[in-house]
Write a structure and sequence with these properties.
Distance between the termini: 53 Å
Helix content: 55-70%
Strand content: 5-15%
Shape: globular
Largest sheet: 2 strands, antiparallel
Number of domains: 1
Number of strands: 2
Order of helices and strands: HEHHEH
Structural class: mainly alpha
Strand order of the largest sheet: 1-2
């Protein structure tokens, strides 16, 4: 039995909310309208990557807005991504505080 070759191991890439936001913005930059399914996929990816409850709640709220539509305009989708990004920024602004008391 041989030891594993550590140089051959490639750690998995940890997906972040920011990477999913960037992918969503890229698609919204080239399209006029996006399918609801595509928007939901990107938003669910954001939710799954999020560690902050506030960000998950914002994504859940945004998802309810497009629950019963077939197409989402690129502008609307960019606005949704902006909300998620703002939630990330606002929540991260409190990282330095000890809120356990």
């Amino acid at each position: 039995m041989t030891a594993l070759d550590q140089t051959a191991f490639t750690p998995p890439v940890i997906e972040t909310v920011a990477s999913h936001l960037a992918a969503g913005r890229s698609k919204a930059a080239t399209e006029t309208n996006l399918s609801q399914a595509h928007c939901v996929d990107v938003l669910l990816d954001c939710m799954n990557a999020a560690v902050r409850v506030t960000v998950k709640e914002v994504v859940a709220d945004v998802l309810t807005r497009i629950a019963h539509v077939n197409l989402v305009t690129a502008e609307e989708f960019r606005d949704m991504l902006d909300l998620v990004q703002m939630a990330l920024a606002v929540d991260a602004a409190f990282d330095h505080l000890d809120l356990t008391d």
